[in-house]
Amino acid sequence: MTDSASSLDVAFLMDATRRLHETIRTRVGDLLSRARVTGRPQLANEPGEWEAGDLTYALDHEADAALEIYGEEVGKKHPVTIIAEGPGVRHYGEGAPGVPLRILIDPIDGTRSLMHDMRSAWVLTGIAPDHGELTRLSDTVLAVQTELPTTSAGFYRVMWALKDEGAFVARHVVSTGAEEERQPLLASPDERIDNGYLCFSRYLPVERPIVAAIEERFLTDVTEEFDLSPRLIYDDQYLCSAGQLTLVTAGTYRMLADLRGWLARTRGIENFTAKPYDLAASLIYREAGVPMLDEHFEPFDAPMDTETRLTIIAFANESLRRRLEPPLRAILETSG
Known about the structure:
Oligomer: single chain
Structural class: alpha+beta
Distance between the termini: 41 Å
Strand order of the largest sheet: 4-3-5-6-7-8-9-10
CATH topology of the largest domain: Fructose-1,6-Bisphosphatase, Chain A, domain 1
CATH class of the largest domain: Alpha Beta
Largest sheet: 8 strands, mixed
Helix content: 25-40%
Strand content: 15-25%
Number of helices: 10
CATH architecture of the largest domain: 2-Layer Sandwich
CATH superfamily of the largest domain: Fructose-1,6-Bisphosphatase, subunit A, domain 1
Number of domains: 2
Radius of gyration: 20 Å
């Protein structure tokens, strides 16, 4: 255990965070079920207001009360600053005896997929010793990520990591919340490029032609260099950074290139990008062994805030990074 982690009551923080996540899962599941049973999808997908970081939807508001309870609980032991998509920055526990903490939370990462009952979303929490505005994702010592499943799912996953002690994943039963199995979470060792997904995020019309041109050049270079069939290279657009990186960890995605932050910087595009709260649980992927890079192909990191625009480049393992990073790097360097 790291020095920074050893000074924390990890069991308390883990239990409190898991209760937060389970409360959000239950509330979100109940709302989705009501929307489905009553034939009123707007109960979950009605657009709301712009809050810290992004536009909110009806589904997002199911998390607000739970966040307040969590802040008060942690604040009994630690002075804590909670930074969350939606509510923004809140402070609890002034004068509490414990180590000051900074906690980054995305209450629902993947709202747009889940609110239509299409695909899982995730609750994300990263906990770090508080270094004020200088606190970064790399300071995270404990991270927890909980799946918010669709109404047709029977199981959901919980993932967590403690810095320098590895990552783990458990499978739970939706109806009871009971844990069925758990195991270490490790990056996929599969070195095959094809028969998997090489994904370039492109959600808005203004992004698509630019990203498509980069993707075409990249796939042409890769298929020619490694003698691959284009029919065995697949694409996927999952509106959820945590969901994407979970698939990278599993090896389903061989590579993820979310270049939206790079596009905003180099093209001045008014788009929505991944932000630090979307990577609140990034410690999990790092501990699992997933190579995560920024737009400069440096190890990924970011401040703990709700506004920084991010680029995420990730590979399922180091072997795939060594083969796929050079052609992508060359294209971005000549496209910037």
